[in-house]
Amino acid sequence: MENKYSIKPGKPFPLGATWTGKGTNFSLFAESAEKVELCLYDNDGNETGRIELVDRDHHVFHCFVNEVLPGQLYGYRVHGPYLPAEGKRFNPNKLLIDPYAKAICCGLTWNKAVFGYDIDGEDKDLGFSDLDSAAYVPRSVVVNLAYDWEDDTPPDISYHQTVIYELHVKGFSELNPLIPEELRGTFAGIAHPESIKYLKSLGITAVELMPVHEFISDGHLQDRGLSNYWGYNTIGFFAPHEKYSSSDGRGGQVNEFRDMVKELHRNGLEVLLDVVYNHTAEGNELGPTLSFKGIDNESYYRLEQDNKRYYTDYTGTGNTLNTRMPSVLRFIMDSLRYWVKEMHVDGFRFDLASTLARGLHEVDRLGAFFDIIHQDPVISQVKLIAEPWDVGEGGYQVGKFPPGWAEWNGKYRDTMRRFWKGDEGMVGAFAERFMGSPDLYMQEYRRPTASINFITAHDGFTLNDLVSYNEKHNEANGEDNQDGEQHNHSWNCGAEGATADVQINYLRDKQKRNFLATLLLSQGVPMITAGDEMGKTQKGNNNAYCQDNEISWLNWANMDEELVAFTRKLIALRIQHPSLRRREWIVGDRIDSDGLLDVAWFAGNGKFMDEQKWNDEHQKCLGIFLHGEGIQGTDEHGNEVSDYHFLLIFNAGFATSEFKLPESRFSKSWELVVSTGDTKTLKPRYAAEETVPVEENSILIFRAE
Q1: What is the largest CA-CA distance in the chain?
Q2: What is the CATH number of domain 7-141?
């Protein structure tokens, strides 16, 4: 092929394709490679040039091409030995995605050519494939990163003021009739005024976007007529997912993402990204060769020490990125820094974060990954949230991440579900989790806000299905209902006869309110899963990762307006009253002039909880007094004032509890502000030491007059 390009040596850094205004610098890390070729393509998929990167510094191949402009499509071919038993899987017949590509287009077509080995051969991955993959793999795109951010300023919302809303970019707006059809399911759909209006009306402060990095859909799912909907299958860690963009896909997705962030920021909403740096979409030794595997397999992936043919898998997906390697740590940090500096995101939730902390095998709390993030002047300043587990041995690390990190609190989820299911002996654990899990986070100067509290998340039942199904129904996934976690919840309401259906529906609605109220009034940071406030159902599917359809999408037409209104009320109550969202621990040792503690615990008889009651496995009713004086809040006019005292009463039993309110030194009277049950038998106000009927499976929230 005739070379029509003017080529210079260029520079090894920054890595990736960097347009300078005069041309493009290409730079690729490939420590063990023998030769690297840059392949350029036109929009019709025709190769227009192939350039060898002859200059090499710091294990980085690089060149500068004058004629290459933004929008140019490209890929790499990397030469070296194909010795799988030694961990080397070079195959120049495979066109490879640039790990640092800022945009990726054209999608993956599953074909035997995308595998580095001969999939028809008897030797499995040991056999070399001479099929060319260029016609089937995505293209990297040169991007002009210039952008007018105007006056964009991060909302910079403190953790104790944060309410997180976990959503899927496509599923959130795909069925919203108020959004133009061409924008539904895209970044622009989230930025649309109707989406912004709804998010602000809820009162949430941050959207946590499920994976938006470029990902691919698994071949075995496509064979079943399904697709990877959730997106935990990343292939491009710098590139916004092409299919979430309403633009042409040749770089337009970058600015569409930025437009979304800018619009959310203008409306006071933070943007957090769910990121998957623990593995890639290339799978194990039998997976495709799309990027990292063909560029430098030994550097990018953890390989079994006694047989480098095989991949160490702490993620359940086939491979694990090798964070022990400086080049991989640099790659992850470059990606994170890019999303903060160039895309203006406000923080990250790290999928299977324990994987990133593993040394040779064990999870290392002081590992290089934590060290490098802690010292980074950019990344250390944004919100960092860990999913503190993986599927490997010793991977469950809830409560063990370093200062500066918040964590998805799986123990909170499990405890609150058991408490409201009516399990015995849960009142003590409930109290601990409700107060921010001090047993997990009080050490090492961490605050209650280290606990990201949640009842549901994207993986598992929706809130509606949690209280509606005793068994999972994942038949649509095509795995004979064998996938997903087992579920043994029995929501007993004691109903019999003709009134059973009515009573069951009433209990389910009440349990949804109980969970939402518990979540939004607990100390720590609440996270709501998008659609839970609407009553979203997935028809019992608790593993809808492959359901890119009405099973997963938010159904705006069937929204439960009453539940939405209840959620808004709870969020507003939390935001307005700092005593319900403390920055510091409530340790219970402050005594004011009235002899009141910061927190007091009451049994149903109006007496303080004692050791006997805490240990009574049949105790299912608990009152919590929260001292508000000295906790600064605002009144209805915006004036700063001391907050109110609150009394929260939780009854997880299956019978009404006659609860005697505390003596007058706590408050002479109490105003009822929230009830999750029937209010017909309740008064709007009660005097001290009056008896209040607390309906079975319900919550009452009182504010001191």
Answers
A1: 92
A2: 2.60.40.10
